[in-house]
């Protein structure tokens, strides 16, 4: 079993990172360089978290061997043995048993060195460059590389300035006791710990509270209505922005003809546009008109690069809001179904809208309507409350240990107490499980906050393959900067850092590569004293939702139970959900009349494209210059208002065949 656990975890962690990247990224549309960089960053960070418990158990075993050998050296020769005769003492049996996950000596230092320095090169050098490269609107690889280098010139120049200053200082002061490598590692860890405190303080409170709120169906439904109102506003803004950008593309496409040198750039931009816009612009294109016949002002390549960048952003944002609206509508329908079925006496879960796909074996034999009712209406809420209580206890233990991990006599850190009890019995399986659960909870609090936060539209991790390249790579940068200080903090909590435990113990292989948390005394004497206090303050601020209240005061609407604006947005969202449900009912009615449908969907893209084609102006209108986008938008708004004007008391069972035909035709 030597090294087998290490190899198994390396494979499992790779598939975990690949699964998360598939959930948030898009393997078919995004660049391979973006996907590879993000996958490598996530994989290395998850690898550190999963392998560190094995390093701890191996270090405890090596420490046991060393203590036993030292004890044998002291008691090898004695003047008299226990029987009173002179001579050596009988051999003492070794209490050390090799753990099942033991990693041979010499493997872990090399492993940690490769993983750590690869992740640091990614987060400080490669990923910032790849961010600018992926976001660039250039039409060639050379142009994108040039843009990325220009955007990161200040970024890289700052590194060179700091490194040059340290190099000069070391040359002037040869008695400087620290190496440049030690200074660099400590500076990176200190920066990471500043950010780690903010994210950890938020996650320790918000994660247990989110599970508790998930058990409150009424609260969850109101929050879904609130999200629907905000998302519809964002969706409308994204659609308007897309139309503005497409109008600009249309003008540029009509001005630059087939034999213009920049026509290949226009073709590249058109390939990034939605299909219906591509068809419309293709019909409006006159390939037989030479661009030299008219003295028009043509756009420059620089302006086309800017337009290309705007098209990529507008299309991605439009697709993301459209998919998010579909998902949110499904969630709202499900929560409304749960609220309706809670009062059901038949204990059979009834869905408002049946899926077009036939039920599988699991739904027919295991997850039956009766089982679904007991789970959704009865057991699920209690399960979430139990999980919330367990996570709350973990959070309290983490906060207490963060405030007391520097105390060694007596040992006040709860995690250090548990590990030392298991260490006295050499229960390696318990040590690894305790270490894994602890560090997994810390990483969940930190990483989940990274997935939750949103910085306007520049950084936002959206599931269902809707995250853009910039956000994916930015998350990889955050993971690489947060994971090393998080692991050092974990080793401090369990007193495996000799600088904190003040015991002569073998350091872990991770600590021997990374260094101690207190390498530089002028940083440790100030920063590590106030660190636990800041954790407590941030947890209190998160519990009372001070950040949410501040954002609400600044004009960024947040969900608050005691806010009048929240109530208005809830009512608006409820009306939007009702309109979406009416659209689904119309789709089901058409399905009963053998009208081709694409399953359970809320946006029929083919019908929308056909509707836009019907609103296309004729050639005579184009030649007379009577076609304007404002007129088209007014007509589209009228059609959307007619589509939304559904009856309030709709009941499919009460309709006759004539009524069905009239409703479908309308």
UniProtKB/TrEMBL annotation:
Keyword Coiled coil: yes
Annotated keywords: Coiled coil, Membrane, Transmembrane, Transmembrane helix
Disordered: region residues: 601-634
InterPro entries attached to this UniProt entry: GPCR-associated_LMBR1, LMBR1-like_membr_prot
Pfam families: LMBR1
Coiled-coil features, chain-numbered ranges: 228-255
Membrane topology: Multi-pass membrane protein
Basic and acidic residues: bias regions: 602-634
Location within or outside the cell: Membrane
Main location: membrane
Cellular component per GO, a single term: membrane
Transmembrane segments: 6-22, 34-52, 114-133, 153-171, 183-205, 382-400, 429-450, 529-546
Record's signal peptide: none
Keyword Plastid: no
Family note: Belongs to the LIMR family.
Protein's name according to its UniProt entry: LMBR1 domain containing 2
Species: Poecilia mexicana
């Amino acid at each position: 079993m030597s090294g087998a656990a290490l190899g198994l975890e390396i494979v499992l962690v790779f598939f975990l990172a690949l699964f998360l990247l598939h959930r948030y990224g898009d393997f078919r549309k995004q660049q391979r360089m973006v996907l590879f960089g993000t996958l490598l960053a996530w994989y290395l960070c998850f690898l550190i978290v999963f392998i560190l418990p094995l390093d701890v158990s191996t270090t405890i075993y090596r420490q046991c061997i060393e203590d036993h050998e030292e004890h044998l050296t002291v008691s090898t020769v004695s003047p008299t043995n226990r029987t009173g005769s002179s001579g050596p003492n009988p051999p003492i049996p070794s209490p050390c048993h090799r753990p099942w996950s033991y990693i041979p000596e010499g493997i872990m230092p090399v492993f940690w060195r490769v993983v750590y320095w690869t992740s640091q090169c990614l987060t400080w050098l490669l990923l910032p460059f790849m961010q600018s490269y992926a976001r660039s609107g250039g039409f060639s690889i050379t142009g994108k590389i040039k843009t990325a280098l220009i955007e990161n010139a200040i970024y890289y120049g700052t590194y060179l300035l700091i490194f040059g200053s340290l190099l000069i200082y070391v040359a002037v002061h040869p008695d400087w006791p620290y190496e440049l490598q030690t200074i660099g590692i400590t500076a990176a860890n200190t920066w990471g710990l500043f950010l780690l405190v903010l994210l950890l303080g938020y996650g320790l409170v918000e994660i247990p509270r989110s599970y508790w709120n998930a058990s409150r169906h009424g609260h969850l439904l109101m929050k879904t209505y609130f999200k629907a109102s905000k998302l519809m506003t964002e969706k409308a803004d994204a659609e308007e922005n897309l139309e503005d950008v497409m109008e600009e593309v249309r003008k540029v496409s009509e001005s630059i003809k087939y034999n213009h040198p920049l026509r290949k750039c226009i073709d590249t931009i058109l390939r990034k546009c939605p299909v219906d816009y591509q068809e419309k612009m293709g019909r409006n294109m006159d390939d037989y008109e030479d661009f030299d016949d008219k003295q028009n002002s043509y756009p420059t390549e620089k302006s086309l690069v800017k337009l290309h960048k705007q098209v990529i952003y507008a299309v991605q944002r439009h697709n993301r809001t459209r998919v998010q609206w579909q998902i949110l509508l499904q969630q709202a329908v499900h929560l409304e179904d749960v609220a309706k079925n809670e009062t059901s006496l038949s204990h059979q879960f009834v869905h408002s809208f049946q899926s077009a796909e036939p039920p599988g074996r699991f739904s027919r034999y295991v997850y039956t309507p009766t089982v679904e009712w007991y789970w959704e209406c009865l057991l699920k809420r209690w399960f979430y409350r139990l999980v919330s209580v367990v996570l709350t206890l973990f959070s309290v233990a983490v906060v207490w240990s963060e405030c007391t991990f520097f105390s060694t006599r007596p040992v006040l850190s709860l995690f250090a107490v548990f590990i030392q009890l298991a260490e006295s019995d050499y229960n390696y399986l318990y040590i690894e499980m305790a270490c894994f659960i602890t560090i997994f909870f810390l990483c969940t609090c930190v990483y989940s906050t990274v997935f939750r936060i949103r910085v306007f539209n520049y950084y936002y991790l959206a599931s269902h393959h809707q995250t853009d390249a910039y956000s994916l790579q930015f998350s990889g940068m955050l993971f690489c900067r947060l994971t090393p200080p998080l692991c050092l903090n974990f080793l401090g909590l369990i007193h495996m850092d000799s600088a904190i435990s003040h015991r002569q113990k073998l350091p872990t292989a991770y600590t021997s590569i990374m260094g101690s948390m207190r390498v530089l005394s002028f940083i440790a004497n100030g920063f590590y004293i106030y660190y636990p206090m800041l954790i407590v303050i941030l947890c209190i601020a998160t519990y009372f939702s001070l950040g949410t209240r501040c954002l609400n005061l600044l004009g960024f609407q947040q969900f608050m139970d005691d806010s009048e604006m929240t109530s208005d947005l809830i009512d608006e969202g409820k009306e939007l959900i009702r309109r979406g449900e009416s659209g689904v009912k119309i789709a089901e009615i058409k399905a009963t009349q053998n009208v081709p449908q694409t399953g359970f969907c809320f946006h029929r893209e083919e019908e929308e494209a056909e509707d836009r084609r019907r609103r296309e102006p004729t050639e005579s209108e184009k030649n007379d210059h009577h076609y304007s986008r404002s007129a088209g938008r007014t007509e589209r708004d009228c059609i959307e208002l007619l589509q939304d004007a559904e009856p309030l008391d709709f009941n499919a069972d009460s309709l006759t065949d004539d009524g069905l035909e009239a409703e479908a035709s309308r």
